[in-house]
Amino acid sequence: MIGKISGRLEYRSTDHVMIDVRGIGYLVYVSERTLAAMPQVGEAVALYTELLVREDLLQLFGFTSLVEKEWHRLLLSVQGVGAKASLAILGALGPEGVGRAITLGDWNAVKAARGIGPKTAQRVVLELKDKAPNVMALGGSLSMAQGTVAPVVDADDDVVIETPKATSSVPVRNFAAAQSEALSALTNLGYNPSEAARGVAQAAMDTPDVETPDLIRAALRLLAPKG
């Protein structure tokens, strides 16, 4: 299984890129959001990948983060959601947006993705709502584990395929980590995972890019009994 591919961007199309690795071109299908984040043709690039294996087809799908890859895997588990639909949802919302929409039951946000009808959007929210807290909790650790996605270049200026490994360096603080820590804090205070996830997701939407303590306080205010 190819967990990550590193090489040089050979060309980019509307839904995929070709990455040259030691003279072999790998077609990697990506979301619009990932495509927009790609460097210029000829520059080094690295993506986490998922290999789809069918009787008559092998396809690589690429992601800029392990959290995005995890959401892709879960979206594919929903009846009626194929790889193309999953990339459309991730392209429209991004991994954190997918988590918020599912946690808050906002199927209209999911429906905004190209080619996603209301029934499919509702099914995504219904089938994944209980799994969303786990992905939110994983978000910080996955972000820390992946570190900087950078290709490995040998002495002959060739680029090799590698599988992602955890890094021991100090991670850069990010919003995914803040959400994960806030969710852990709320569950430690006695909120059940689904309830805590709703509070954190709503707080994250209302006050983006805040540090963990502020996110916890905002979520607690949202979860406080009314009246």
Automatic annotation (TrEMBL):
The keyword Nucleotide-binding applies. Residues 1-64 are annotated as: Domain I. Keywords: ATP-binding, Cytoplasm, DNA damage, DNA recombination, DNA repair, DNA-binding, Helicase, Hydrolase, Nucleotide-binding. Residues 167-227 are annotated as: Domain III. One of its GO terms (molecular function) is ATP binding. SUPFAM superfamilies: DNA helicase RuvA subunit, C-terminal domain, Nucleic acid-binding proteins, RuvA domain 2-like. Belongs to the RuvA family. Has three domains with a flexible linker between the domains II and III and assumes an 'L' shape. Domain III is highly mobile and contacts RuvB. This is Holliday junction branch migration complex subunit RuvA. The gene is ruvA.
